[in-house]
Amino acid sequence: MILTNTKAMVINMPGKKSEHIKSADKKAKGLLQRNIVLLRKEYGLTQQMVADALGINRGTYCNYENRTLPPQYLIIRLAQIYNISPDVFYKDDLKSNILSVKSSDSFSDDEYFNELTDSEKLLIMKYRLLKKADKAEIYKIIDEKTNNE
């Protein structure tokens, strides 16, 4: 505390978090962990599938669901995989948001797309992580391969 003009001013020390900030951090961590599990299960994915798409081992991914926070770049990659904004991971009402997104998906009622194999799901997750130019290149290759048969 520093005394100035006989008034006490509280100065936060660098590296020290107030109880309010600690509480907010704990809530955000809980929401993130709950929601990455919820999304994974809602989309019928295993921890191994998501870990493979992210390029990490399953144990590390499991820790992100249960113990530690993933680094920011992985939160962004997870958002790309699920085709959502990263801030969605911190919503209290994610379950209702998922259901509305899935019901608005043009493929949601098509059994062909609901019955993707695990390897097809993994391809889609990895595809979503690509840059726009790389997606165009992959699309061109697929188009060439399917038109030549």
Brief overview:
By secondary structure, the chain is mainly alpha-helical. 63% of the residues lie in helices and 4% in strands. The relative contact order is 0.10.
Structure description:
The chain has eight helices and two strands. It is mainly alpha-helical and 149 residues long. It has a two-stranded antiparallel ribbon. A hairpin with a 2-residue loop joins β1 and β2. α2 (47-54) packs parallel to α7. The termini are far apart.
> Which segments are poorly predicted (pLDDT under 50) over 5 or more consecutive residues?
103-109
Largest sheet: 2 strands, antiparallel
The dominant shape is elongated
E-strand count: 2
**C-alpha termini separation:** 77 Å
The largest beta-sheet arranges its strands as 1-2
Rg from C-alpha positions? 21 Å
Number of helices: 8
Q: Mean pLDDT, rounded to whole units?
A: 81
* Fraction of helical residues: 55-70%
Element pattern in H and E: EEHHHHHHHH
Strand content: under 5%
Given helix and strand content, the structural type is mainly alpha
Topology at a glance:
Elements: E1 2-4, E2 7-9, H1 19-42, H2 47-54, H3 58-66, H4 72-82, H5 94-104, H6 111-114, H7 118-128, H8 132-147
Helix pairs in contact: 2-3, 2-7
Key terms for this structure?
149 residues; 8 helices; 2 strands; single chain; mainly alpha
